[in-house]
Amino acid sequence: MRLFVRASPGAKINAITGLWTSADGNPRLAIRVSAPPDKGKANAAILKLLAKALGLPKSALTVAAGETSRLKTIEIAGSDQSLVPALEKLAGDPNDHDN
């Protein structure tokens, strides 16, 4: 399964903040991490935060695209059936967020 995220490194806290919609209308999961965008530190923090939130080992997640970009594609190993409810919970109700 692939998850599309928008990363904000250098934040005050690590948090998954819901959905963010790009200018072309594509939704992405918004993630803030305190790690700086330096030598993969922010990517590692994103993977750790997502793994914990999804109840998966860190080894089940990899950055498939966008290693140096805010817009990333995360590859998640596992059953799509079991991941969908967890991802929906992370995204929350899109009507509750200012994108």
Automatic annotation (TrEMBL):
Pfam families noted in UniProt: DUF167 (PF02594)
InterPro entries xref list: DUF167, YggU-like_sf
Gene3D superfamilies, per the entry: YggU-like
Stretches assigned to coiled coil: none
The family this protein is said to belong to: Belongs to the UPF0235 family.
Protein name per Swiss-Prot or TrEMBL: UPF0235 protein ABFZ84_07020
